[in-house]
Write a structure and sequence with these properties.
The chain has 394 residues and is an all-alpha fold. The protein has one domain. It has 17 helices and no strands. Helix 1 runs antiparallel to helix 2. This is Quinol:cytochrome c oxidoreductase quinone-binding subunit 2.
C-alpha cells in the first residue's frame, strides 16, 4: 500500500523544554530522597526498590513490545514504535540506577546476613543462588543483555530511516528471535531477584509471568499517555490516528484480563494448597491495612478498567482511555508497594514520604532520558516498508 502524504512535523520541537524540566524534577526528587537516606536508610532502600521496579517494568515492557513487533512483522504499530524503541534504548544508562539497590542489599534482603543463613536450613539450601556475589553478577548480565537489545533495535531502526535499506528488517527480526527467548528468561529471574527474594522462604513458580503481566499492562497505559501528551502539544496529530489509539486500547484491555488471570492463578493455587509457609506471605499482605491496598489495585487495574473498556467506543474515547491509563499505572505502583513494603513494615501499613520523592526522582530521570532520546531522530520510523499500512488506519 502506498504511503499517504505525511503532513505532520516529524522532528520533536527544539523549543519544547520538557527534557530539562523532567531532569530537574528528577534531580530534586533524588536529592530529597538522599536526605531521607540519612534519616531512615532502610525506608530509603525499600522506597527506592518499589519505584525502580515500577519504571524498570515500563522499560522491559517496551523492549518486549519492540521485539514482538519485529518478529511478527506487525504493521499496525509502526507509527508508534519509535516511542518504545526510545524507552528501551536507554537501558545502558538506566542500569546505573540499580547501584543504590546493590549498596542497600543488606537492608533489603534477609539472605545477605551471614548469621541468619547460619541458623536457617532453608537459606543454607538456597545459598548457591542467593549470595551477594552471584546476585551482582546476575544484575550485570540482565542489564548487559537488555542494553544490547534495546540499543541495537533502536539504532538499526534509525539507520533504516537514514539509508532506506529495507534489508535491515531481516536483521531486526534475526535479533528479535533469540532476543525474545533470552529476554523472557532474564525478566523472570530479575523479578525473582528484585522482589521475590525479599522473603526468601516464599516462592511462586508463576512470579516471573506475574511481573511480566504487570509490566506489559503498564506499558500500554504509558504509550497511551505519551501519545495523548504529544497530541496535546500538536505533534503527530495526523500520523498517529484514532485507529492506533483504539488498537492500544484493545491491547490494554486484553492485558488487563491477562494480568488478572495470572494474578488470580497465583493466589488461587496458594489458597487452595493452604501450605503455611506459602499462605503466610499473603496473610501479611491482607492484614494490618495492606488489605486496602489490595482492594485498590484489584479494582484499579482490573475491575474498573475491565468494565469501562469493555464497550468498543470507550477504547477510542480519549478522556476514558487516558483516565483508565492513569488509574492502571497508579494501581501498578500501589501493587509493587504492596509486594515490597510488608517486608519492612511487618506490623501494618505505614506511609512514608520517601515513596513520593523516589517516585519523582526516578520518574523524572526515566522520562527525561526517554524524551532526550526521542527528540534526537524522527518521531516515527519514516522508511519502514510497513509504514504505509500503519498510516492508513482509520
Amino acid at each position: 500500500m502506498s504511503n499517504p502524504k505525511l503532513t505532520d512535523t516529524l522532528d520533536f520541537p527544539s523549543d519544547l523544554n520538557v527534557t530539562k524540566s523532567l531532569f530537574g524534577v528528577g534531580i530534586v526528587g533524588l536529592i530529597a530522597s538522599g536526605i531521607g537516606y540519612f534519616l531512615e536508610h532502610d525506608q530509603f532502600f525499600f522506597s527506592y526498590l518499589v519505584n525502580f521496579a515500577f519504571f524498570s517494568s515500563i522499560a522491559l515492557g517496551s523492549l518486549f513490545f519492540v521485539l514482538v513487533q519485529h518478529l511478527t512483522r506487525s504493521h499496525w504499530s509502526v507509527a508508534i514504535r519509535r516511542i518504545p524503541e526510545a524507552i528501551s534504548s536507554n537501558f545502558w544508562i538506566w542500569g546505573l540506577f540499580i547501584i543504590p539497590l546493590l549498596l542497600g542489599m543488606h537492608s533489603l534482603y534477609h539472605w545477605t546476613h551471614a548469621d541468619a543463613v547460619a541458623h536457617d536450613p532453608v537459606l543454607q539450601g538456597k545459598s548457591a543462588y542467593l549470595n551477594t556475589t552471584f546476585f551482582i553478577i546476575r544484575q550485570f548480565i540482565y542489564f548487559a543483555l537488555w542494553s544490547f537489545l534495546g540499543y541495537r533495535l533502536y539504532n538499526k531502526s534509525v539507520e533504516m530511516d537514514e539509508t532506506g535499506d529495507w534489508g535491515l528488517q531481516t536483521l531486526l527480526r534475526r535479533t528479535s528471535g533469540p532476543g525474545l527467548f533470552f529476554f523472557g528468561i532474564t525478566l523472570a529471574f530479575a523479578s525473582f531477584d528484585w522482589l521475590m527474594t525479599l522473603d526468601p522462604h516464599w516462592y511462586s513458580t508463576i512470579f516471573g509471568v506475574y511481573y511480566f503481566a504487570m509490566s506489559f499492562q503498564g506499558l500500554f497505559a504509558t504509550l497511551i499517555l505519551i501519545v495523548l501528551f504529544l497530541w496535546k502539544k500538536g505533534l503527530l496529530t495526523n500520523t498517529i490516528q484514532r485507529g492506533h489509539i483504539y488498537d492500544l486500547g484493545v491491547q490494554l484491555f486484553g492485558f488487563t484480563v491477562f494480568y488478572a488471570y495470572i494474578a488470580f492463578s497465583q493466589f488461587l493455587l496458594i489458597y487452595y494448597a493452604n501450605i503455611p509457609e506459602e499462605t503466610v506471605w499473603y496473610l501479611e499482605r491482607l492484614s494490618g491495612g495492606y488489605e486496602y491496598l489490595a482492594y485498590f489495585y484489584l479494582f484499579g487495574r482490573f475491575v474498573i478498567p475491565f468494565i469501562v473498556l469493555l464497550p468498543k467506543r470507550s477504547k477510542s474515547n480519549y478522556n476514558i482511555i487516558g483516565s483508565m491509563s492513569v488509574l492502571i499505572l497508579a494501581a501498578h505502583l500501589v501493587e509493587l508497594y504492596w509486594l515490597v513494603m510488608p517486608v519492612l513494615d511487618h506490623h501494618g501499613f505505614h506511609f512514608n514520604w520517601m515513596i513520593i520523592t523516589t517516585f519523582f526522582g526516578l520518574g523524572g530521570i526515566f522520562l527525561g532520558l526517554f524524551f532526550h532520546k526521542f527528540k534526537q531522530n524522527k518521531m516515527i520510523p519514516v522508511n519502514d516498508p510497513q509504514l504505509g499500512d500503519s498510516l492508513n488506519k482509520h
